[in-house]
Task: structure prediction
Amino acid sequence: MTAFNAMTVLIYLLGIAGWLVLWKWLVGYPVFKHKKLLHIVFIGAIFVLVINAILSLTSAIPPYETELKLYAYVEENSKIVAQLSLTICLFIAVGFTKLSTIMAIDELKRFIWLIFWSLFIAVIGCLPLYWMPSSDFWLTALRHLKTIPYVYSLFLLGAAAILFIYALKYRQRKS
Result:
């Protein structure tokens, strides 16, 4: 294992630890008792980060031009998550009173909380250009660093969508 591979594995392991802390703070683990579908996004984020760590064990540093394309791919996907989150925020702002008839106020607050955090993490964590390294090594490292907040924002947005699904109670059994 090269120093680069060790660094990328460390980035993803720290990303997993960060996800566990972020989930505890934003959502909380007791919510799993009542909303079992949230396991999908919680475990999904860990799965994606673990797969990235495993794949980075054997990966080589790509040529600079190739890495620039991969770097742009991460940023483009982050922009999509940010745009989707912003669209949902605008939808909430316009239809807040109608949403409050669909969702309990506490659930609505948690939904909005997750949407805003998804937006915040996508915009602050992924989109700013920290620096444009001139070496292949550091450009690849930067892409791996930006992948972590991208995964966080994507799966927090998924958690908000699942909370909305629960609020609709479409498949709830009639007594």
About this structure: The chain is about 80% helix and 0% strand. The CA atoms of residues 103 and 155 lie 21 Å apart.
